[in-house]
Each structure stands twice: as C-alpha cells, then as structure tokens.
Amino acid sequence: MKRVRILIWILVVLALAGFAYLTLRPTPEGRVSQGQVTGSTFGGPFTLVGSDSKPFSSQRLSGKPFAVFFGFTHCPDVCPTTLQRLVKLRNELGRGDEAFNIVFVSVDPERDGPEQVATYENAFGGPVIALTGSPAQIEQVKKQFGIFAQKAPDGNGGYNVDHTATALLFDRNGQFVSTISPEEPDQPALDKLKRVTA
Fold this sequence. Notes:
Blueprint: H1 2-23, E1 31-33, E2 36-38, E3 47-50, E4 55-57, E5 66-71, H2 78-93, E6 101-106, H3 114-121, E7 129-132, H4 135-145, E8 149-153, E9 159-163, E10 167-170, E11 176-180, H5 186-197
Parallel strand pairs: 5-6, 6-7
Antiparallel strand pairs: 1-2, 3-4, 3-7, 5-10, 8-9, 10-11
Helix pairs in contact: 2-5
C-alpha cells in the first residue's frame, strides 16, 4: 500500500512538471519563467489574418497594452472561459475598452477561418480582436510567443487541440510583462493588469 501511495505522488509530481513545461516551455527566442521573460525577441512583430479576411499587422496593437491568448473556436472550456474572464477583468479595471486590447489567436487554422473567428470575437460581451492565418503563419507566431499546440484525436473521428492555456501580457510598447494562468485568482491577475496599464 505504501508503494502505491509513493507511486501516486511520483505521478502527481510528473504531471505538474509536465503542465509547467507545456505552459511555460522554453523557446529559442526567449524563456518564460515565473511570469518573467529573458531574451529580447520574445513575441515581436507578426502579420496574421483578421476577422474581416484582411491582413492584420501587430503594428495595429502599438500604443496600448494587450493580453494575447492562443486557442481555438471549437474549444469546449478553457478558451471561452479565459476570454470571458479577460473581458470581466478589463471591465473591473474601470477604464473601459481603452484599458488594454484582448487578442485571440487561433491555433486551429484548418477549422478557424475569418468567418469562424469573426463569430467568436463577438461572443464575449466586449471587444476581442480574433485572428487566424495560414498554417505557416500560425506556426511562426506560435514559435515567437513560445506557444505549444498539438492536435488530440477525440475518439469520434474529430480532434481537439491541446495548447498553452496561459494569457500573455504585453505593455504599450509590445514588451512582454507577465502572464495570467487559468488557476490564478482574479485579484492577483487584476493587480498585474493594473501595473501593465498604469
């Protein structure tokens, strides 16, 4: 019985280590660690496709802080919950939509075209900038932002996407500042947003 308990604890530790790696995994450009980043090229300029089917340059985000979250429109839980939460936190700041931009980037370009992300960006009761792109564009921006995403068959002939569930916070100059994880309570997350938008 004692061996079983020890084995269970080892599995728990390994699962936590795996989760930490997936959400804060190293990248060649920079390394996210405990909400901080080393390496000046983490993030950076990109061009994707907006919900209007036109090219969207990251230059359009200049001058205002932004939170970026990578997910997919077929996501059953984490993605809608995270975007709804970001809208809620922005409302709680009391500065209106000018406080910071919320950017959603699809990691499922096969199913998420401009029409799909257009529907998604209007579903959360507040302005969300929803972006997609070609598979090559999405792969490039995932590398830039240190995002993990991988198809996971659902057993019914379809698939979900396992992906980083952390929102990344950038200041008005496009510099990485911090993260908000799904497990993080609202008050610490709000405190981070206050610092980013000060």
